[in-house]
Design goal:
29% of the residues lie in helices and 14% in strands. With 105 residues, it is an alpha+beta fold. It is flat, with a radius of gyration of 32 Å.
């Protein structure tokens, strides 16, 4: 079974990556808490409106007919006379499962 890393392992790995980055000359900028990446954070988020004109759909009946005909070809995939088997659980007098058997439907 694969061992998943603990939070402590992840923290140590992240800290080593940060140390390697700064050792190679990388710089970490301090961003003040509460600063947003949006232009105007006091403004609410814009939700898309569906007020534009409806776009018409292009009917393609020949493609739909081809797809339907492919689905109809596979309807006779079962062989006639082939019985379907189902797993059945045999219980004892107290309701405890004893064994599983295969029965034909």
């Amino acid at each position: 079974m694969k061992k998943f890393p603990t939070k402590a392992d992840l923290r140590i790995e992240l800290q080593t990556q940060i140390d390697d980055y700064t050792r190679q000359g990388g710089e970490i900028n301090h961003i003040p808490r509460g600063l947003s990446g949006r232009d105007n954070p006091q403004e609410s988020l814009q939700t898309p409106l569906f007020d534009g004109p409806k776009t018409s759909r292009t009917p393609i009946p020949e493609v739909i007919a081809a797809l339907d005909s492919r689905g109809k070809k596979n309807t006779g995939s079962k062989k006639p006379g082939q019985a379907r088997r189902k797993e059945k659980i045999i219980f004892d007098d107290f309701g405890e499962p004893l064994r599983k058997v295969w029965v034909e439907e």
